[in-house]
Amino acid sequence: LPIxxxxxxxxxxxxxxxxxxxxxATFFEEEEDYRKRKELxxxxxxxxxxxxxxxDKVLMTLTVCFSVVFSVALFMVLPYLLASLxxxxxxxxxxxxxxxxxxxxxxxxxxxxxISKMEDIQRVFMYHGAEHKxxxxxxxxxPLTVENVMKSSRFHKRCGTSFLFFVIIxxxxxxxxxxxxxxxxxxxxxxxxxxxxxxxxxxxxxEFIRLAGxxxxxxxxxxxKPGLALQKLTTKEPTPDMTEVAIAAVEAVFDWKEYLRExxxxxxxxxxx
Length: 273
Fold this sequence. Notes:
273 residues, mainly alpha, 12 helices, 77% helix, globular
């Protein structure tokens, strides 16, 4: 169902993303711990693996919960608390909501700018760019080769960065509309309602991202521009070897050759070596 599927996709993305990060982290475990686990045999090895799997599940749950709480506190609660100070000078709720959105955008931009300066995150953003290039390459009817991917754009309308931008825009509409119909005077209740509206906001934003990715409408293209501009922060130009990794990742989950045969029958697909 529309909107509802967006909520579940949002939750699924959080869980899958966390699992991938934790899986990557296992490659950096202490050499001594790794050696000890390799030396285990039989039942002892099974017990150790079961114990580690249980620990990983607990850690993943805590990580997802912390991520959600941190994100809601930083990008939902804090902007409202700061903007609500305008009530002291007699500002209307509509003005407070607009100010809240402005603070949220500034916090989001500052957060992205600061993490983009971290060396490890810069590499993540380069892989992010490689992922976008792969998708753009295939969606423009080109075979998935390093040369074609490197020439493709690193910006994509269906990016999560664009999704976050639409979340901010949709939240303005939701909050102004809701509190115009249901006046709420208590500050803590306003905060709770904002948090409860997050799933609906995420669902609507997801539907717009789907529309933007499959539409050439001028209005949709115009509304997509701010999200694409934000991707200048969250994507970087990848190296050829990063592009090879991105191609391998795409091929593991998507048959791009079949996609080209169905949608671009005139495209010449290179033979397997």
